[in-house]
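task queued by scheduler; priority normal; single chain, no ligands, no partner chains; default sampling; output format set to structure tokens
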Amino acid sequence: MTTAASVPPSLYSAVHDGHIRVVQRILDEARQRGDVARIVEARNDIGMTPLMVAACSGSVQITLLLLENGAGPDAKAKSGWTALSMAAALGHLEIVALLLQHGAAIEAKDSYGKTALSITESHVDTVRVLLEHGAVVDAADNQGWTALFWAALKGYDDVVALLLEFDAQVNVRDHNQETAIMQATYCNHVRIAESLLEHGAEIDAQDKDGWTALFHAVQQNHEDATKRIV
């Protein structure tokens, strides 16, 4: 593996800061040496390639330049995140679309088993792009959580609505037998709980401890959620 110490130190800073001319010059010099493949696949101390840095910084032009010079879109950092994961998490919509156009693996999982769809969280436009490109709406992570679980827990109303539009399963169980509506009531996200109920969420479903969505709301003293779901 090529490390950052063995490539021009200016490459990472140029990519991060969006200096495309500097990046182009470094790549041109590497090409003259027959060394461009090694340069674009270099890793820093946390396993990030220049492409990942570009995806994080939001530079569409540099992302495209690196891809055109052979940067692999599916390389993983130590966290298991790919350039797609990073762009999705930050809501860099154009870069997400660009990476998908260049064949990025949409179902690649990080060390927690999360795909880009779950990592995207509140960025509803990015969620839509991923779904329209075939992301599995009910892909589960290592604890059995889908994107719907995460959106329900964190109160992302628009994302929940979009996931339901793409037929997310509302009664999927995680490894503790919990469902998405339990996450919503636990956090007092009333509108999400109502939306899940409208889409067939089982209000009397019990987790491994026998707790229902209502019991979660009561235990947290969430009067709003309690009133709406009884």
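post-processing summary
- Residues 1-136 form a domain with the Serine Threonine Protein Phosphatase 5, Tetratricopeptide repeat fold (CATH 1.25.40.20).
- The radius of gyration is 21 Å.
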